[in-house]
Design brief:
Elements: E1 9-13, H1 18-29, E2 33-38, H2 41-53, E3 57-62, H3 68-78, E4 85-88, H4 103-131, E5 134-138, H5 151-170, E6 177-183, E7 186-187, H6 193-196, E8 208-209, H7 210-222, E9 229-233
Length: 241
């Protein structure tokens, strides 16, 4: 995974599909060498193939963000070159009424969204510090509003926002920046039908696109005097009654 010192390097967790895939392709198109991290080799290979076909650079690292030891291997592989950007787009949830939710269902969603975020940050700290890099986490906008049947995910995302703000201050002396993008209804290829049906509640009158989210990620990547912020990219739906 070594690269020229002048080449910007971005790690994209969840880069095999959805918003992560779209962000990886945009970053590669702007000159980043992209390292795709995810659980499914086939999805990562497909994204990497598209990036390479367009003239970009992409490597693959198969890992579950909940796997502490595997992410430690990723950090060790990148510490010498350092990285300029970490896009944390790994996450997921399965809707379930809270009164019926099992311990395992709660824990699995908290693990992938909250613990997985910390594991990534912790193990890539040294690589980020080497280049005074930046972190942008994709955190669904349910963190700032009630989310019936998604209590596990909403609570975990709220935790990720606090973690983002905490590390923005704690790691600021090393010039590592932390920000988050909070998408609303986004046509990422994975939006449940029950959410897609809510598009008429969006004040701007349309669903978001992956490119809308990638625009915000690129803004934070380049905004060298911005840290600890959360940018809602939701068409104003958080204001809808």
């Amino acid at each position: 995974m070594a690269g020229k010192e002048s080449t910007r390097i971005a790690v994209v967790a969840g880069g095999g599909s959805g918003i992560g895939r779209g962000c990886a392709k945009r970053l590669a198109a702007t000159g980043y060498k992209v390292i795709l991290v995810g659980r499914t080799l086939e999805k990562l290979e497909n994204t990497a193939g598209e990036i390479r076909a367009a003239g970009g650079e992409a490597d693959i690292f198969v890992a579950d963000v909940c796997d502490w030891d595997r992410l430690a291997e990723l950090g060790a592989a990148l510490v010498e070159t350092g990285i300029d950007l970490l896009v944390n787009s790994a996450g997921g949830q399965k809707p379930k009424p809270s009164a019926e939710m099992s311990r395992e269902e709660w824990q699995s969603v908290v693990d992938i969204n909250l613990s997985g975020s910390f594991f990534l940050f912790r193990h890539l700290h040294d690589a980020l510090a080497k280049r005074q890099g930046s972190v942008v986490t994709i955190v669904a906008n349910m963190w700032q509003m009630p989310a019936p049947q998604l209590a596990h995910s909403a609570a975990a995302r709220a935790g990720v926002v606090n973690l983002t703000r905490t590390l923005a201050k704690e790691w600021a002396p090393e010039r590592i920046r932390f920000n988050a993008v909070a998408p609303g209804l986004t046509d990422s290829g994975a939006l449940p039908e029950r959410f897609a049906a809510m598009v008429d509640k969006v004040p701007l009158g349309r669903m978001g696109t992956v490119d809308d989210i990638a625009d915000a990620v690129l803004f934070f990547a380049n905004a060298s005097y911005v840290t600890g912020e959360v940018l809602s990219v939701d068409g104003g739906i958080r204001f809808a009654s």
